[in-house]
């Protein structure tokens, strides 16, 4: 095989590519943090037809954070309710939603880094959080009904609870999540239980798999948090083989968790961007799921209810403050008085569901089952 040809440093410096591949319409890639030219001093002609992509400059100071510009922007946002942070979020979302669906994945990546750092804030403790709706995870896995040696993908796998249920049926399971901390925990748990599950970090808006890679695709209360539902739904269809199967578990649109989000969490959250991000509970409507998924799947629905049972509201609070990444992140931004008010409002809400023996809060959900067209 012939080795790739190299451009001379002088020519590359002048045009950014070798002469035979130079294009007057090609945008010069620049650092997404400092704006400096990131063109290489040499190029492989074999790579020359690839589209230019923004990237971080090798000497950019933002590299020191470990995550480049995405981490830098997330620090702006999570350090407090700064006007600069709010303006960035608003401008970013407006920019993303104006571009065609096929081009959104690249623009979503900085948004994804921000969300991933938040969801991963509780680390392996999130496993305890999943335990409290494990009955719904079992329900969804049963309806997917994986068979031995079938290839199954669990999207937004978290610490891998659903992936392990699928693997216990002798399926060949992969799990993907955008939080490196959660994937690290998922790998450790699977290794301890001697389950061969292929976990990797990846984005639901741009799944790192080829078209039609899986016999079945599953997501349990995970993909509903995607910042771009249309793009995430398209990816579910893309990686599923024709006549393959889909199973999603989503919280019902009018469930008690949606009420808690409105009455409690919005009081202690940053003001929403304009337009606001999509609500994860919007997936909890059969009409909405048809809009998102029926271009690729024939759908059927089944409803269920998972009951949260704890001794008292304070026990539920301790679970959320220790094991729910978004709550851990939210608390890190609040002062002591706001933390106390948040805690009181949270506990009061759960005490509405007290029985003579403790808290029993019903949480309605929908399982959507589909066949790939």
Share of β-strand residues? 15-25%
Based on CA atoms alone, the radius of gyration comes out at 23 Å
Order of helices and strands: HHHHHHEHEHEEHEHHEHHHEE
What is the count of DSSP helices, taking H or I runs of 4+ residues? 14
Q: Which architecture of the largest domain does the CATH hierarchy give at level 2?
A: 3-Layer(aba) Sandwich
The CATH homology group name of the largest domain: Vaccinia Virus protein VP39
What's the overall average pLDDT, rounded?
A: 79
Outline = globular
Give the helix level as a range of percent.
40-55%
Class from helix and strand fractions? alpha/beta
Could you give a short account of the major beta sheet? 8 strands, mixed
CA(first)-CA(last) distance? 41 Å
Please report the first level of CATH classification, the CATH class of the largest domain. Alpha Beta
The CATH topology of the largest domain corresponds to Rossmann fold
Poorly predicted sequence stretches spanning 5 or more consecutive residues:
1-30, 36-95
* Annotation, overall tally of beta strands: 8
């Amino acid at each position: 095989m012939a080795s790739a040809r190299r451009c001379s440093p002088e020519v590359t410096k002048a045009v950014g590519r070798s002469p035979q591949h130079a294009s007057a319409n090609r945008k010069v890639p620049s650092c997404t943090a400092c704006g400096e030219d990131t063109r290489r001093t040499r190029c492989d002609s074999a790579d020359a037809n690839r589209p230019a992509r923004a990237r971080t400059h090798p000497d950019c100071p933002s590299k020191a954070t470990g995550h480049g510009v995405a981490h830098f922007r997330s620090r702006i946002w999570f350090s407090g309710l700064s006007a600069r942070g709010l303006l960035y979020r608003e401008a970013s979302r407006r920019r993303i939603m104006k571009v065609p669906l096929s081009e959104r994945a690249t623009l979503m990546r900085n948004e994804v880094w921000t969300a991933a750092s938040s969801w991963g804030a509780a680390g392996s403790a999130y496993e305890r959080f999943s335990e409290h709706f494990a009955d719904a995870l079992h329900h969804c896995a049963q309806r997917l009904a994986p068979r031995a040696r079938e290839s199954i993908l669990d999207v937004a796998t978290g610490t891998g609870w659903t992936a392990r249920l699928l693997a216990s049926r002798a399926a060949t399971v992969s799990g993907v999540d955008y939080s490196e901390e959660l994937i690290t925990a998922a790998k450790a748990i699977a290794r301890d239980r001697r389950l061969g599950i292929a976990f990797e970090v990846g984005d639901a808006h741009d799944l790192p798999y080829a078209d039609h890679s899986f016999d079945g695709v599953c997501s349990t209360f995970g993909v509903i948090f995607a910042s771009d539902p249309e793009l995430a739904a398209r990816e579910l269809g893309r990686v599923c083989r024709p006549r393959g199967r889909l199973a999603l578990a989503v919280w019902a649109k009018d469930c008690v968790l949606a009420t808690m989000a409105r009455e409690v969490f919005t009081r202690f959250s940053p003001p929403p961007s304009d337009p606001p991000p999509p609500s994860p509970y919007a997936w909890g409507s059969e009409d909405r799921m048809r809009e998102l998924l029926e271009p690729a799947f024939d759908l059927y629905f089944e409803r269920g209810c998972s009951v949260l049972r704890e001794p008292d509201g304070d026990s539920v609070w301790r679970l959320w403050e220790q094991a729910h990444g978004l709550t851990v992140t939210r608390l890190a931004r609040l002062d002591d008085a706001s933390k106390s008010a948040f805690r009181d409002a949270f506990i009061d809400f759960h005490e509405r569901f007290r029985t003579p023996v403790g808290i029993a809060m019903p949480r309605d959900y929908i399982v959507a089952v589909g066949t790939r067209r």
